[in-house]
Amino acid sequence: MSLISVRAIGKSFGSQTVLADVGFEVSGGEKIGLIGQNGTGKTTLLNIIYGLEGVDTGELIGLDDITIGYLTQHSDLEEGKTLLETALRPTGHLGSLAKKVAYLEQKLEASKGLEPDVVEQISRDYAKALEDFASSGGYGHPSKAEAALEMLGFTKRNFQTKVGNLSGGERTKARLVNLILEAEGVDLLLLDEPTNHLDIETTEWLEDYLAKLPGAIVMVSHDRYLLDKIVTKVVEIEAGGSAIYGGNYSDFLEKKAFEFESQQSRYKKQQKEVRRQKEMIEFMHRIYRFKSIHKTQQKKLDKIDRPMDHAQKLKLNFGKAEKSGKDTVDAKAVVKEFDGRTIIGKCDFRIEKGDRVGLIGPNGSGKTTLIRMLMGELKPTSGQLKVSKGTTIGYYAQDQDGLIRSNTVIQEIRKEKKDASEEWVRTFLGKFFFRGKDVYKKVFALSGGERARLAIAKLLLANHNLLILDEPTNYLDLYAKASVESALLDYEGTTIIISHDRALLDNVVDNIFELSDGALKTYAGNYSSYRKQKGKAGLSKGGDLYEVTKTFTDWKQKKKFKQGQKIRIPEGEMANYEWAIENKFIVKRKG
After folding, report:
1. Is residue 591's pLDDT more than 60?
2. Edge-to-edge strand order for the sheet containing 341-352?
3. Three-state SS at 584
4. Least C-beta-crowded within 10 Å: which of 7, 32, 246, 270?
């Protein structure tokens, strides 16, 4: 049963068209992943569904009959507020109503001298806003907030603690309070990057919580594992339009790859025909001087576009690593204290040339402190931390603090390449989607994704043999994340990555360093291997694992399966594979 229907939505801001023809259905209890490159209008679409933005064309059906919660990606904590005050802050629908009540209160207070009928209208609006606030649970909010805090493991004695005095892990949990309150009892929950600022442990708690919610969810996220575990349908926003794919994110990638192969095949056939027609047009033009036909046909042929492979949109290369010693980093009994408090206890580790290390741990566990010691910005309180002679370090800061806010994009690149021609710099920046007037944008005017791309661009200009990357995939869309992974796999130097991106940690690193409660533990292997060693359940990839026993083509799904290929089949997609399973083309495997 359809909960809401998004029909041919179009939205422009000035001369810029963001959405042109977007449409999809949301059924009761359905979990939808809304994906697309940064800047394609995903957040705008959520704002439209919630009612914060109007539409230029199209319509939304069903909104009047349901309750909606909305958690935006900007939910920073105020240092001076208590934990309970933070939880009591109305958000989403309740927050909008609270703002409306406050606004009308101010209008009433300033209504002296206004016409009586105007004051009466303001009074009616104020009364209606109070009624809506009360009926939406506004006055029951404190008890709900306390219950949500207790669900996250806080006790009543924590409620009056100032946010500024909370530990990193407690702050992380505090950010989830508003989400829990938004999700309670709504028919549809809208989420915009819900895992921003969350550590891995809390992200996995959130996954389980969202999976059990009875209501429908439409979620914008760049967390690939979250999308795999939660969503049952993917809506991709591209070039102002939308495309719908059943299944989770892994299923989307498979279907997208099949689409691309089909488009490539059609494109090659078209090109043969294009060459034949061009030869004919040139002949007719040369012999018979058919100029108008020549121009018209040429325009038609020029409109045939090459299909775009999204996984290859951002081509990155982290350069050729300079030679370094065998042991890049060697730590013995390293301790770091601040004001008598131990941040990092005695830790011993060795990072050898070519190692790819994933550094994980709760927020506030000391990861950044360890990195600053590696870079020589801090000294250990005791112990030895040795970086091999000849090691050159390239550092990517998650807040991009190496960028000068008043500089333009092109000025930032020229700092690293003073002798490069403008043509070379523009070509280089074009690889990072900075084209035309974009190269003259000031750093302070860039979006989070644009700043991330610029910081990575600067890092690529130097041939470092040790890369230290602090949350390198934050702010990047799913396509750019895949490109960063590919570049890191090709890089021959040593890499240390601080990240909450489990897909990155699974696909790139070969060692996990876990910092927790001041202790450092090391684990061989990627993130999934680390989980097994810790005795945790394997990461959900969205369904049971099957293996293809015979090569076959499923014409219904327009998919080709090769012998030995392993696929995961979500419960909601089983009907599509019944024939193959019954005929033993696909066999269930453990894993």
Report:
1. no
2. 341-352, 327-338, 382-387
3. coil
4. 270
